[in-house]
From TrEMBL:
This is C-type lectin domain-containing protein. Keywords: Disulfide bond. PANTHER family: PROTEIN CBG13490. Coiled coil: none annotated. Residues 21-134 form the C-type lectin domain. InterPro entries: C-type_lectin-like, C-type_lectin-like/link_sf, C-type_lectin_CS, CTDL_fold, Snaclec. It comes from Diploscapter pachys. It holds the Pfam family Lectin_C. SMART domains: CLECT.
Length: 166
């Protein structure tokens, strides 16, 4: 069903890849390393969000995509609390608690930062690592639910129009 220039579909939009569960689409953005807030904003422009990894297969999928390009990617995680008194709590951008995790030993670590990215090399390969949200820059991946994957046929990519100070 088409209306107002939008097309509903059961396939991923251009430049997005279907995840193994066939419920999500992801797009890896290379060549643009940004702070987490900018990565999040860029994903929002595509009606998407930073990766939310709730199972091992999705962690493996994200890692495989990122590692092919040696790109450490932001995850949609924010942590609060301190490691000193064991009160760290991490949540996904939608507010849900992080249940499944794949942290490098000793992480999350609030001394390093409250955000997280996925490592692609060495002991951190496929693991989650704390990072400073405002000082560190990484590549990023956007995820969207397949059921909500609508694309505008009459409008160029919103990413081409954004003006970021990097």
């Amino acid at each position: 069903m088409a209306h107002l220039g939008y097309v509903e579909s059961q396939q991923c939009p251009d430049q997005y890849t279907l995840t193994p569960d066939k419920k999500h689409c992801v797009r890896l953005h290379l060549g643009l390393n940004v702070m987490q807030q900018y990565a999040d904003a860029l994903c929002e422009l595509e009606d998407a969000y930073l990766p939310k990894i709730t199972e091992t297969y999705m962690n493996t999928f994200v890692y495989n995509m990122a590692s092919k390009s040696s790109a450490e990617v932001w995850l949609g995680i924010q942590c609060t609390g301190t490691i000193d008194n064991n009160t760290i709590s991490c949540r996904w951008q939608d507010g849900s608690l992080v249940i499944y995790n794949n942290w490098v030993k000793g992480f999350p670590n609030d001394y390093v930062g409250q955000c997280a990215y996925m490592g692609v090399e060495g002991n951190g390969a496929g693991k989650w690592i704390s990072s400073d949200c405002d000082l560190t820059q990484h590549s990023f991946m956007c995820e969207k639910d397949l059921a909500n994957s609508t694309t505008r046929k009459d409008m160029p990519s919103k990413l081409n129009k954004i003006n970021l100070k990097l």
